[in-house]
Amino acid sequence: MGVKIEVFRMMLYLSFPVAMFWVSNQAEYFEEYIVKRKREIFPPDEGMHRKELEDFKEKMRVRKEQRILKQISVESEN
User: 61-65, long-range: CB within 8 Å, 24+ apart, which pairs?
Assistant: First the structure.
C-alpha cells in the first residue's frame, strides 16, 4: 500500500510541472492572455498622443537651448 501511494505522489510531483509547462506554452493561451495583457499595459501609439509627445520634446529642447545660451551670455559678460 505504501509503495502505491509513493508512486502516485511521485507521478503527481512530476506531472504537475510538465502539465503547467505544456499549458502555458500553448499558442492559443499565449495569444489570448499575454498579448491582450501587453496591449492593456502598453497600448498602441495613437497619432494625436504621439504628436503631443513630439511637441513637448521640442518645447523642452528649445527651453534647454535658451537656458544654455543665457548661461553662455552671462559667462561671456564676466
Answer: none
Asked whether the predicted pLDDT for residue 69 surpasses 80, the reply is: yes
Single pTM value for the model? 0.41
Query: H/E element holding 72?
Result: helix 47-77
- CB distance 29 to 23 below 8 Å: yes
Task: Look up residue 13 and give its amino acid.
Answer: Y
DSSP count for the chain of H helices, then E strands: 4, 0
Q: From CA 13, how far away is CA 36, in angstroms rounded? A: 31
